């Protein structure tokens, strides 16, 4: 996946490295060499067609020679550049065109194989390279309409009208353009989704690492507490034994002050698992407050409201990385586009829990509301632009906790995001879904 990176416009950007290594192209070409040679021998020997066998086998041998040279020049694990793969595929078009020229041109039923290199290019190469290979393939098809050695049909022979050849050429040309465009577009969408999912996994991994660091700090605080207590006891004993004006009094006072400082630090670390442990519940409103803290702005007012329906208490939820980071992404988006205020409402009843995040910004453009949640879709404009991954990452992470999410524009202006859970699912200790 190193061959493309997400850009602000949502299109894969190639950095010069292809998506295949040399071994893949060499293996495919060896299959083509074997298939071409076997077909020529079968038609010439079994069907008794007098083909220019030696010349045709030399054309097949040229493909084998390219394979051998490529293997000797560089390791088969080499990941080829966009230009290298294009050169190999262009040679395949040229070689197959030469073979078709010797065996009837477009009257040969195997002429459809000329589409194969273009299909491969559309799958793994950049759009300009694919367009160039399409043009080269169209040129080859046009040449084969007029120049070819006719197939030696058995008596009384078969003469196809020029209209048929032009029809086959038109069909192959249209198929070349359509397959290349369709395959490239579908593959580009797959690349974009893969890149976006990779960004989501990286964000979640970062949150999990932070949680692991918090757990490690708690363990260190617990393990260091006993020896530090022993040091404090010994220091107090020495303090009582040594005279107040002794030469070691100053050092002993320093030791006691540093012990006290260490105990304060350990006490602070010991409190962190209460907030970060995925097994301890905290009020949902507190989780929203913690998720918003890194993104607050002095210019934007932030308020958390509570909406209880019935007598059920406020949900106590585990502070899982998916929850905190997913809510954090939504709140960051709200702070980024708000004009002066962001409001989060935490609501619950006996069976459901919900969070509504509103801002007083410009809201989402109507034409992109239907696509909100897809990767690289940004529905609001601000200086500096947006990659359009925030809501996608938030929805992906929150879905792992059982949430459903709705995005719309509020009736009085601004954006409104609603997240809903089944209460027992949110408060439970179920592992995240894959």
List descriptors.
two-stranded antiparallel ribbon, alpha+beta, disordered C terminus, about 425 residues
Could you please describe the fold and organization of this structure?
This protein is an alpha+beta fold. It contains 13 helices and eleven strands. The strands form four sheets. Strands 6-8-9-11-10 form a five-stranded mixed sheet. A hairpin with a 5-residue loop joins strand 10 and strand 11. The longest helix is centred in the middle third of the chain and has 80 residues, at 162-241. The chain is elongated, with a radius of gyration of 34 Å. Mean pLDDT is 80; it is low at 1-17, 272-279, 382-387 and 429-434.
Assess the beta-strand content as a share of residues.
5-15%
The major pleated sheet works out as: 5 strands, mixed
**Largest sheet, order of strands side by side?**
6-8-9-11-10
The average pLDDT is: 80
Number of strands: 11
* Tally of domains: 3
**Helix fraction by DSSP (H/I, runs of at least 4):** 55-70%
| Structural class by secondary-structure content | alpha+beta
Given the structure, what is the number of helices?
13
- Order of secondary-structure elements: EEEHHEHHHHHHEHEEHEEHHEEH
The protein's oligomeric status is: single chain
How far apart are the termini? Answer: 21 Å
């Amino acid at each position: 996946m190193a061959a493309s990176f997400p850009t602000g416009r949502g299109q894969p950007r190639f950095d010069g490295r292809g998506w295949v290594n040399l071994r893949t192209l060499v293996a495919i070409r060896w299959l083509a060499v074997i298939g071409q040679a076997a077909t020529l021998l079968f038609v010439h020997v079994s069907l008794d067609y007098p083909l220019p066998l030696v010349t045709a086998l030399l054309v097949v041998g040229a493909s084998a020679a390219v394979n051998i040279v490529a293997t000797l020049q560089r390791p088969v694990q080499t990941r080829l550049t966009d230009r290298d793969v294009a050169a190999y595929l262009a040679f395949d078009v040229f070689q197959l065109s030469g073979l078709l020229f010797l065996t009837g041109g477009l009257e040969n039923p195997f002429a459809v194989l000329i589409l194969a290199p273009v299909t491969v290019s559309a799958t793994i190469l950049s759009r300009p390279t694919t367009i160039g290979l399409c043009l080269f393939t169209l040129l080859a098809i046009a040449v084969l309409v007029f120049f070819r050695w006719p197939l030696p049909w058995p008596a009384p022979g078969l003469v196809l009208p020029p209209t048929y050849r032009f029809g086959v050429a038109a069909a192959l040309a249209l198929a070349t353009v359509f397959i290349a465009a369709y395959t490239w577009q579908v593959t580009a969408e797959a690349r974009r989704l893969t890149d976006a999912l990779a960004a989501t996994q990286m964000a979640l991994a970062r949150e999990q690492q932070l949680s692991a660091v918090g757990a490690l700090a708690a363990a260190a605080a617990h393990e260091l507490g006993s020896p530090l207590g022993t040091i404090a006891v010994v220091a107090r004993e020495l303090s009582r034994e040594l005279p107040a004006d002794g030469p070691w009094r100053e050092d002993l006072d320093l030791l006691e002050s540093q012990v006290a400082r260490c105990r304060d630090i350990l006490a602070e670390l010991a409190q962190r698992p209460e907030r970060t442990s995925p097994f301890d519940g905290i009020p949902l409103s507190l989780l929203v407050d913690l998720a918003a803290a890194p993104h607050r702005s002095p210019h934007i007012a932030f308020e958390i409201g509570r909406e209880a329906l019935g007598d059920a208490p406020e949900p106590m939820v585990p502070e899982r990385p998916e929850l905190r980071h997913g809510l954090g992404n939504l709140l960051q988006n709200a702070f980024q586009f708000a004009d002066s205020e962001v409001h989060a409402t935490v609501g619950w009843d006996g069976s459901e829990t919900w969070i509504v995040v509103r801002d007083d910004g410009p809201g989402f453009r109507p034409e992109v509301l239907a696509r909100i949640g897809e990767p690289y879709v940004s529905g609001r404009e601000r200086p500096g632009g947006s990659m359009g991954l925030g809501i996608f990452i938030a929805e992906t992470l929150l879905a792992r906790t059982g949430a459903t999410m709705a995005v719309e524009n509020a009736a009085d202006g601004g954006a409104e995001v609603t997240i809903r859970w089944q209460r027992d699912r949110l408060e439970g200790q179920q592992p995240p879904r894959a």
